[in-house]
Amino acid sequence: MIRWISGIVGLGIVAVLGWSLLWSIVGVVSDPPAPTAEAYVRAKHPLPSAELSSEGVLGKFDVRQLQRGFQVYKEVCSACHSLRLVSFRDLRQLGYDDGQVKAIAAGWQIEQPSVNPDTGEAATRKNLPSDHFPLVFANDVAARAANNNAVPPDLSLMTKARHEGPDYIYSLVGHGYVNQPADLLAKFPDAKTPKGLYYNQYFANLNIAMPPPLKSDGQVQYLDGTKPTVDQMAKDVAAFLTWTAEPNLDTRHGAGFAVLGFLLVFCVLAYGAYQNVWRNMKH
Amino acid sequence: MATLDHAVPPGEDPAPYHEAEDDPRRRDFINIAAVAWAGVGGAIVVLPLINQMSPSADVLAQSTTEVDLSKIEAGQGVVTSFRKQPLFVRHLTPKEITEANAVPVSELRDPQTLAERTKPGKENWLITLGVCTHLGCIPLGIHEGENRGQFGGYFCPCHGSQYDTAARIRKGPAPKNLAVPPYTFSSDTTVTVG
Amino acid sequence: MSFPWAKHYEPKYAVTKWVDERLPLPRLVYNAVGAGYPVPRNLNYFWNFGVLAGAALAVQIVTGIVLAMHYAANGGVAFDSVEHIMRDVNAGWFLRYAHANGASMFFIVVYTHIFRGLYYGSYKAPREMVWLLGVVIFLLMMATAFMGYVLPWGQMSFWGAQVITGFFSAIPIVGDTIRVWLLGGYAPDDAALNRFFSLHYLLPFVIAGVIVLHIWALHIPGSGNPTGVDVKGEQDTVPFHPYYTAKDGFGLGIFLVVFAVLIFFAPNYLGHPDNYIPANPLSTPAHIVPEWYFWPFYAILRAFTSDFILPAKLWGVLAMFGSIVLLFFLPWLDSSPVRSTNFRPVYRTFFWVLVADVLVLGWCGGSPAEPLYVIISQIAAAYYFAHFLVILPIVSRMERPRPLPTSITEAVLAKHGGTSPTKSAVSGSVLAAE
Predict the structure, then answer these.
(1) Between 1.10.760.10, 1.10.10.10, 3.40.50.920, 3.40.190.10, what CATH number should domain A60-86+132-247 receive?
(2) In sequence order, what are the residues at sequence separation of 6 or more whose Cβ sits closer than 8 angstroms to the Cβ of residue C1?
């Protein structure tokens, strides 16, 4: 009895799926999926690697590179992009001491929102190390108004919020802004970059609202004397943003090795105990 | 359901695992080692579970407060916040200092001299928590015009505790003097509390 | 426990005797997981996964309770509270990654456990109740995992909630009313987030309760074994402790190694980058996908693209739930008198096709809804339903199974080529080499 019911239900579902399958095939045959400009560009330009020291299971941050990256963020990016999940005190991890961190906070261009103690009106005050990096724009509306109707996203988690994040950032700002290739335009005339946007071969839909942030070599003067090529600055800021997204990476990798070592020893001991317990028992 | 057959092949013990009959110490050592190693692991894993309840980095970062003393005149006091509690910063007048030092320490419920409650050379700066040591109300007396009680210090309206010019308990139910938090003079006009 | 040769509990210490006389918990533990529970001696490593599932639940409960001390379930602060855990709470990153990857480990273990059940006929008489309770546990796990993923309030959290709660509006007439009731609003917002947090905290304890019933139901007939042949006598079994406590200890070690590799070296590998973007109700992600453990069901949902009397969307929802509900009927769909697929050569082929089919469905579920993937999903989904509802009932009725061993001991001996089921304790064994 149950066999009959299940058979009918089963064949029924298969029939409904067959119906959908039929129409899917008809759809594919009559209106085959068109290649997209994005797929075309993606195939021709795979993401170059930023070769960061934090990559891989043995990855560790290069503190000097983080400091350079912070300098790039400060001098190039911070005018539009906030870092609201990071606190000034976190910069100690970059090798700055308490005094330097206090100075960086106090000297930060954008001040922390506060209240005028006499009038009660909104005011600002200098940043303390315990503060988070303040927002650049009060809200999204203000951000759009100042940036041609685009909101510059917060960068705290950017390398975790994008697939292959560190390499993506490096590629986007370091090698993404090229002239829109003629063959692309020939194949996909709709992909022509609209006015007010910029062509970037690594951006999701190829046309980004951000003007090229790293325009030329030497835009930032590195304090450690490293040559500030666009490629170098892009790598450094990618490293810095990898840190802002994952400040605990070094600790995590270190703890991981210790834990894995411990567990592998445990597995050996546990296997030995298992063999010992079962030694006289065929199974 | 199959019938149960109790027959066991002759000469065999169906569950022959005993505590090692050959060499008790050697055979079961591996068992003990495995369990002990697991126990160590268990203890280690408990540590972060307990530690996560300790104050987080942002709370610790707000555990110090800086106070600017330059605007506080003698005879004035300000209230600020230290670890989310009120902090009384008072600039004592010479008269208040003399009054405090004139009190015999043995008469005090919580014996302390003014010198013990301030920094050497900075006896005119009295920095205490603004929390009554009885049941936690905020005493009056830090602001201009507030009731300072009969000892010229602070007066707690909740149950009538009265503190003197060195914020020591003199009358009323409070058991201890107003608490003095750890602080240092980072400069002549700035104090770092905590 | 039902076997007459099961050892009886003898309290060894005065303390345990005192407790046992007043509250028979020591004896309960002894009879459930101690030396008082006889278990077939021939279990393979696939039998480790039940205990591992229990361990995964324990990990989730402990890390979850601790995370709940720092998490704030309100739309404006939820995302930031999770980042607060990751950055400022002592070892917070470890707890968060353990909990997120622990969910994946829980599903990996449970899927293996389910497929063990399918292969070895663990759902067959007299263990049907064990199986039914197991399906209930699986459904509770899915609800818990779904609600848990909403809590960080990232883009996938929000949009996943939007899509899943949208299913309910496919129900005719009352659908949208139900959806609004579930959400406490017209879209996922604070009301939904708060109630998901409450229920996400509650359900694991309900799961724990059902697990108690699941194990209790198992311990009435006792554990199955790879041959599917019933236990005939004392020589077929060994006491759970120390034989299987030792084996499970080793299994736990391997589980923890895999878990540690995920937490410490690839903590975001199984996740989706979009969930690191704060939820934005006005911006839909390019590809909404649930977590990997839901992908096969997501593929079944999206396979129904054409209306057929009922709207396609309703078919999709019904089929998606149906694909799990049909598991409840499995003990009655499969009428083979033989439990273990080891002895069912015809069915065995279909079993492995099913495994491949589920993997294909999973791959489709995680892919964008492009025509190629949709077509493959449609074929794969058709096989899934055909397998359980058409093929299995027919094959189980018609196939000729291979001859079964007369007992577990016989099977073990045949494997080792010896005459005694134990190895000689005398040094320089005289028995045939193993």
Answers:
(1) 1.10.760.10
(2) C31, C36, C37, C38, C219, C222
